[in-house]
Amino acid sequence: MVSRLYILIALSLFCLALVQSTVDARPSNRIVAVGDLHSDYSNTLAVLQMAKIIDSRGNWIAGQDTLIQTGDNVDRGSGTIAIFKLLQKLRKQAKNAGGALARAIRAVGQEVMNLHGDLRYVTKDEIASFGGPEARKAAWDMQTGWLGSFIYNSFNISHIQNGHTVFSHADMSVEWAKKGVEQMNIMAHQALSEKSFEEPIFKTYGPVWNRDLAKQTAGEEETCEIIDKIKRILGVNRLVSGHTAQSKTGKVLSLCNGGYIDIDVGITGYYGGHLAALEIIENSDGTQTVSAIYPTRKIVIS
Ligand SMILES: *[C@@H]1O[C@H](CO)[C@@H](O)[C@H](O)[C@H]1NC(C)=O
């Protein structure tokens, strides 16, 4: 059971995938990120439509924009297959869009648990949607399953976008940041391929589970110091995570002047069905304007 959980986690981490195409044109200056979707397909469509990433038929309309999804697309609901099929389609459409730099990125979270065969949060309906436990297991196989291999090959545990923002499913720590994003990605893939789901990278204080920043466990001031330190180590302007559901407020959590942003607003009906996405606009002077997009308004964070 525990090892299944870690597979899910590893998969979740691997959802930080970067899809990239290089047709020539002016690259977009817009990056959109959405947090945990948890098998809620209709709210996935709703949040991506709200952020003008897809149209009402679920097709990519964001041209050369970048979409980043921070993992946890499984569990708690029955729309796992539909969500991953949508992500696969969007990855292709983004790649072909407008002839420039189109990327779709995601970071894996609870997917690692599923890769590992830990199904503790998986619903009965969801298992039935795969055609039963055996068929589900086959789909999640990292070598031979359509879903397992997609997650293993297309996602990472962490990702730095254009040098200014680091994305991970859960929170970074100083210790993990010191290893660097590339090393974390290599370590996570290595552990997955060896089915070593007990590695520290998949455990409580690793970037798939840690909640210390969102919960400010070290206290307000100290947490800001930690965030600044992690930013310095990784050379970025901000850290963006999902994982710690802000279901009480349904709002994007911004700490330390936008140095840390939690985008898990509880998009899935299970956590309240709150719609929100993060938008980062890259300005010509090298700065970024970061906003939270909600159904009726957009609020500038930093
Ligand atoms: C995952 O990370 C590795 C190491 O940083 C990188 O080489 C690779 O391109 C990344 N893969 C994806 C899908 O982003």
UniProtKB/TrEMBL annotation:
What Gene3D superfamilies does the record point to? 3.60.21.10
Leader peptide range in chain numbering: 1-25
Keywords, comma-separated and alphabetical: Signal
Which SUPFAM superfamilies did the record assign?
A: Metallo-dependent phosphatases (SSF56300)
Alphabetical list of InterPro entries matching this protein:
Calcineurin-like_PHP, Metallo-depent_PP-like
- At the top level, the lineage of the source is Eukaryota
Q: Does the keyword Metal-binding apply?
A: no
The Calcineurin-like phosphoesterase domain, residue ranges: 30-245
Q: Which PANTHER family match?
A: SHEWANELLA-LIKE PROTEIN PHOSPHATASE 1
How is this protein named in the record?
A: Calcineurin-like phosphoesterase domain-containing protein
Q: Which organism is it from?
A: Linnemannia gamsii
